[in-house]
Specification:
Chain lengths: ~1000, ~90
């Protein structure tokens, strides 16, 4: 260390534990307890980054989560790299590697710095205005803009850390462990409330824990000593849980909050293995006490962004808590008493203060007199008008303020310094309060927004509620908590407070300059390089809404969300527009309060746990037999089974041919199955399906079509009458849950008088479908006792049977147009029965087929798939399925809608078959269908919904919906593609075995 | 996220529930008697009130029962929950 910047006075710093870390490829040392910022400052490093737009050198400015400048990249080029980390928050550990962002080739020499010289031509909205013309050039512009913009680099390798989510329920949640939060936690816990206290920092006590001043005392004790005893006391309380390094990210309605608990970020990398890095806490609190404190305001003057310019409270914290001085020749610039506390902290350690510049004309507080006694020159009624020094401040110039504070007068005085502390008063941290839906009010006297209306059972206390003096904080915390918690015993009987600070403040949002505004760079949002000039420009250009000004100038849109400068932006807007402060409101504070990594948000839901998926009982067989899978809803369904390096097309052609030539086998377990019982089951089915059910005999099956009340097809499937009052309904795979929900809805709300009970049994049964001319022989081998004769077991009927003494249900139903059987058996026997069928079908070349072949086979028969050939605009009439709509039934869901003026139109899109002129040409699903390509604009008649090459017909076939298609049989239409027009003919949608001979063939 | 007091199960988190639109709309007993306009009124027309709204909710990941809720849409305060078929507890 070149200079001695470290003072041995801090309790937080363990000077016996030295830690080495790397910053911008150089090794430095700090101590256990340091943040990266305090360690860098101890090494006399202020310059840590470059600004976003102008690439101006920037230094550490704050000491907390509000930091706009000192955001760094951690562990660049490693799996643990993280961008935009605040150096003021990261605790150093052995092996920490950090680097500056937004600079190239280095933070000391940055090519982008040219932007600073170009800044007169880079005003707010520059990119919007400049790169709009010609529009086609955007692609070229974008490449360069993206390269030069942006902050950190996102990781390229997957994150090795573990993240978790936790649910927490408590009576009282206290956010913030400053003096008021500690008191609140004690009062709540001691009165029997199950209490959780969280704080984003690694220590408790907030800023009072390093308040060693003689000027603020509680019960005649130094504040920090009094508070330490309090902390000591509450850490022993049984029903109080304390979580440090835990930042509340979001405060939602009904007192639901999200917080991130940071568990390993302060540990060396080699100690993090197999530990949870962050926990996302989902907290439900009966009562919330917000004690988030306040953030010191900067002051807005020309060149207020140089390295070496810090908030005065940050300078105080670095010396008092970390034992680090930010400079050896300090100047403080203030509009209130806070800077004098900083001055006392520096003076106590003999650190030089060159001057204090105070914009107030009169200063009347004990602490200011004490500072003056130390022969510190105080410039009263002065303002800083400029600063000097490129990579570190070395001089400032000051001028006297006019009486109204709108101009500067007199001569310019130059003062030397290596550090400038600024204090513009305090802004209550109301972010979480407003996220919860709270409404703010503006307090004119000290120009702050404070909580007004609470939308849930919550309260704000301490300085986030606008109580800034120690006396106010303590007295108001006690009285408001007694009321809020409805308790008599506050735990604090007599409390005497001594405070040396005065509340006086001279608030000037934008300090005047001797230069014209166009020549100044007074930064309002440091991270996004938004200046007062930009805000004024936005107003000149007509923006009035605070939300619009924000977006146009990008004020408050950085990773810090404008925690420092938003108030000044509002102030400058209202001053310029001549409106009152409260009128504009504030911009919306959105969660998260501080950035969260994606890992924290997704928790354990990564990799194969990203989403749940469902597997059929036969899944393992499909895997073992080389199946490719397709996702259908949450299901993994066998898609096709490639053999000998077949591609999907070859496999599907083979499977489709075999199924019709001999035998195919399909795992249909995913079909939704609903067990329906009760004396009114038949009546219920009458009402939910379009066709009639009363006359269906026991032991028979029927296909049904279900509509929505608007008449559009919702679902379809075969339902079997198992007994007089017992049915088994099947639904589409994807529609199962929704169909059950819809049926329950009608039963509970519209027809509660019906005696009907529904149970989902989808997962209870494995369903194996065996089809093809040899299916009968195969099934008779698997179930020899079952009489499969057409007389005893005709198409669309069902039989109870047994396989190896295990009960099963066999349905003779078909989705392929082939003679086929569906065996339903208890799920756990699914795989063995499947294997039995495979064994029995060996001699018949039984071919397992997947969903793709199933789709092809049904398309040959013109059977629809709900959701593929239909969307929510197709009625059964549109589908040419008039035959399934009962004319006799008085009512069913959707019936009335089938003859609304819109649904009876002739020119609705209707389902048709499409045949290509060239039988080898396969249409693309989704392709548009037109009649005339010469007309402009071309009228779209419809689109292709299903398309395949049929190996059984040896030509391509397709289904599509076409306006008025029902009456267009034989008509020629065109499918316009990118490179050609394909000629098609409208055909009957049933392409194969129109008469159904195969279904009823004697086998 | 709301805490919803299911009339059958008690207080549960919103993620267990599904909203089902406006409450107290009866399916017409004789749809065939209705004109197109009358049917459209039942089928499509729903209120979207800022303020007190009567809604259907379903405890879909719980008891699967439908029930009604009175909610102030301006601040998401739930004023009441009650079973299907019961009269609304407030106007």
């Amino acid at each position: 260390m070149s200079k001695n910047l470290r003072f041995k006075t801090s309790k937080l710093i363990d000077e016996t534990y030295r830690i080495s870390f790397k910053f911008n490829n150089k090794i430095y040392f700090g101590f256990k307890g340091d943040t990266l910022a305090s360690a860098l400052l101890a090494n006399d490093i202020h310059l840590v980054g470059r600004s976003f737009k102008y690439h101006r050198p920037r230094g550490i400015m704050t000491s907390g989560s509000e930091e706009p400048n000192a955001i760094i990249q951690l562990h660049d080029n490693s799996s643990r790299t993280e961008p935009n980390v605040r150096a003021t928050e990261i605790e150093i550990y052995d092996g920490l590697v950090a680097s500056s962002q937004n600079c190239w080739p280095s933070v000391n020499f940055d090519v982008g710095g040219i932007n600073n010289l170009l800044s007169p031509i880079l005003p707010a909205g520059f990119y919007y205005k400049t790169f709009m013309w010609p529009a086609s050039f955007w692609k070229k512009y974008e490449f360069f803009i993206r390269k030069s913009a942006g902050l950190g680099k996102s990781p390229k390798i997957s994150d090795p850390d573990i993240y978790e989510h936790n649910y927490i329920h408590c009576d009282v949640l206290v956010i913030g462990a400053g003096i008021s939060g500690i008191m609140a936690a004690k009062m709540a816990a001691k009165n029997g409330f199950k209490t959780l206290l969280v704080d984003e920092k690694s220590y408790l006590g907030g800023s009072s824990i390093y308040d060693y001043s003689e000027f603020s005392k509680i019960n005649n004790q130094i504040t920090s000593s009094w508070l330490e005893k309090e902390i000591n006391e509450i850490s022993k309380l049984e029903n109080l849980e304390i979580k440090k390094r835990t930042s509340v990210a979001a405060f939602h309605g009904y007192n639901f909050l999200l917080a991130r608990e940071n568990l390993t970020d302060h540990l060396p990398i080699n100690q993090r293995l197999n530990k949870v890095r962050h926990k996302l806490l989902k907290i439900r609190a009966k009562k919330v006490i917000t004690a988030t404190g306040s953030i010191e305001r900067p002051l807005i003057f020309d060149n207020n962004d140089r390295p070496g310019i810090l908030l005065s409270s940050a300078i105080k914290k670095y010396i008092d808590l970390y034992g680090v001085t930010c400079g050896k020749n300090n100047i403080l610039f203030t509009n209130n008493d806070t800077a004098y506390e900083t001055a006392m902290s520096l003076l106590q350690r003999g650190i030089k203060i060159n001057a204090i510049v105070d914009n107030r004309l009169e200063i009347d507080s004990k602490i200011s007199y004490e500072v003056e006694k130390n022969n510190i020159k105080i410039y009263k009624g002065y303002s800083v008008v400029d600063t000097y020094g490129y990579k570190r401040i070395n001089k400032i110039s000051i001028m006297k303020l006019s009486k109204d504070g709108q101009t500067v007068i007199g001569d310019k005085t130059k003062l030397k310094c290596d550090c400038l502390g600024i204090s513009g008063g305090w802004t209550p941290a109301v972010h979480l309060f407003t996220q919860s839906g709270g409404k703010l009010k503006f307090r004119e006297e000290d120009q702050v927004f404070i909580p007004d209306f609470y939308p849930s059972d919550q309260i704000s206390i301490g300085s986030c509620n606008g109580d800034f003096s120690l006396e106010e904080i303590i007295k108001n915390t006690i009285s408001s908590l007694k009321k809020f918690l409805n308790i008599d015993n506050s735990e604090y009987k007599t409390i005497e407070i001594v405070s040396g600070l005065n509340r006086s403040k001279r608030n000037i949002w934008l300090l005047p300059s001797d230069k014209s505004i166009g020549k100044t760079k007074s930064f309002v949002d440091y991270q996004n390089d938004a200046t007062s000039k930009d805000i004024k420009l936005a107003l000149r250009e007509g923006f009035r809404s605070i939300e619009h000004v924000k977006r146009y100038t990008t004020t408050g849109m950085g990773t810090d969300q404008g925690k420092l400068g938003n108030m000044h932006a509002l102030g400058i807007i209202s001053e310029t527009a001549g409106t009152k402060m409260g009128e504009h409101g504030t911009t919306t504070f959105r969660p998260p309060y501080t950035p969260l990594t994606f890992g924290t948000i997704v928790g354990r839901n990564v990799g194969k746990f990203f989403d749940i998926f469902r597997r059929t009982p036969i899944h393992d067989w499909h895997v073992a037999n080389n199946a490719e899978f397709e996702n259908v809803g949450q299901w993994k369904r066998a898609w096709y089974y490639p053999k000998n390096n077949e591609n999907i097309h070859q496999a599907v052609q083979r499977e489709s041919k075999s199924a019709r030539d001999s035998a195919g086998i399909l795992d249909a377990s995913t079909l939704g199955k609903i067990d329906i019982q009760g004396t009114d089951s038949s009546e219920f089915l009458n009402r939910v399906y379009t066709n009639a059910w009363s006359k269906l005999e026991v032991g028979k099956c029927r296909y049904g079509l279900m509509l929505n009340e608007d008449g559009m097809v919702y679902d379809d499937g075969v339902t079997t009458r198992l007994g007089e009052n017992h049915y088994l309904m099947t639904t589409t795979t994807g529609g199962a849950a929704n169909v059950l929900g819809k049926l329950e809805d009608y039963l509970q709300t519209e027809w509660p008088e019906l005696d009907v009970y529904l149970s989902t049994v989808t997962d209870h049964y494995a369903t194996i479908s065996v089809c093809g001319p040899n299916s009968k022989k195969i099934v008779s081998k698997v179930i020899p006792d079952l009489d499969l004769s057409d007389e005893k077991f005709p198409h669309m009927s069902f039989k109870n049977a047994k396989i190896n003494n295990i009960k099963c249900r066999v349905m003779r139903i078909s989705f392929t147009g082939e003679h086929s059987y569906e065996i339903n058996i208890q799920a756990s026997f699914g795989k063995s029965v499947w294997e039995k069928c495979m064994e029995a079908g060996k001699d018949f070349n039984i071919t397992p087929y997947g969903t793709e072949t199933m789709h092809l086979l049904r398309a040959e028969k013109g059977f629809i798939i709900v959701g593929q050939d239909t969307d929510a605009t197709m009625t059964p009439i549109d589908l040419q399925m008039d035959w399934i709509v009962s004319k006799k039934k008085y009512d069913f869901i959707g019936k009335r809608s089938l003859y609304r003026s819109d649904t009876i139109r002739d020119d609705r899109k209707q389902l048709v078959g499409l045949l290509t002129e060239n039988p080898e040409e396969i249409l693309e699903e989704g392709a548009q269908i037109v009649a005339d390509v010469k007309k402009s604009p071309i009228e779209m008649l419809g689109h292709v919904t299903s398309s395949y090459y049929s190996p059984n017909l040896k030509k391509s076939i397709a289904l599509g919906v076409v306006k008025g298609g029902k009456n267009m049989l034989g008509q020629k239409l065109i499918i316009p593609m990118e490179d050609k027009n394909i000629n098609v003919t409208v055909a009957d949608p049933v392409f194969f075995d129109k008469e159904g001979e195969r279904l009823n063939a004697k086998l | 996220m709301f805490l919803i007091n299911c009339p059958f199960c008690g207080e549960r988190e919103q993620s267990e529930f599904k909203a089902g639109g406006e409450a107290h709309i009866m399916r017409p007993k004789q749809p065939t008697e209705l004109s197109d306009d009358e049917w459209a009124e039942y089928l499509f027309m729903r209120k979207n009130i800022k303020g007190i709204q009567f809604e259907r909710w379903n405890h879909v990941h719980g008891c699967r029962k439908w029930f009604n809720m009175v909610r102030d849409t301006s601040n998401d305060q739930i004023k009441a929950v009650y079973k299907m078929g019961e009269k609304p507890p407030l106007k």
